[in-house]
Amino acid sequence: MPNIITQLASIDFHGHALTVITGPAGEHLVAMRPICEAIGLSWQSQYNRIQRHPVLSTCVVMMNTQVPGDDQHRELVCLPLDYLNGWLFGVDASRVKPEIRERLIQYQRECFGVLAAYWQRGEAVNPRKSRRPRLAPALDLDYPVSRWLGGNPLYARYHLDPGSVFITADMFFDQRSPTLTVLAELKRAGYDVEACYLEVQGMRHHLEVSRDFIRTLHQRSGEALNQGMRIKRW
What we know:
By secondary structure, this protein is of the alpha+beta class. 39% of the residues lie in helices and 18% in strands.
């Protein structure tokens, strides 16, 4: 019995709009007949090829849905989206429409290179996909305790021993923030760390409000305020 569709979406697949079906279990599927007909392939021949294939035949899914441009629900033969590239790699380029033949040949040629790179070098890179820059060796991301406390005369009076550090409330609001410094280095290297920055600044703000409120309570009560706590080092 065919599955019932839950959601339709459109994605770009090698320059063509492709309807992707999201099944009941969240799987992403593509109806194969519309693709075959769009590029000039005989659907029956491709269906037989899929059924003969030792891998593709095991992941065929039947979906009952109405695709864009159709006026009724139909039972469609679908493959998981992750298998679509592999199916296209095996298509006979001489059987497709002349206007897309060269593009298909170029795609298949690239597939050979991708497979070789994966199996021989352990990595394959798509040059059309932007890659986030790797950390440059010159990045200074080391921030030991000595850098935090040693360069700040305000905290020189607090004892620093090999096993623990005395942390005060004021240290969270000083401009010499280890976290903000490291985030700034990552931003300069091209990483998008804005969410991390906003989280830290938000916590600093709420901690400052809490600190001022606690200080006011202690002043009114006349009790001594605990200036900090000793935290065990890693």
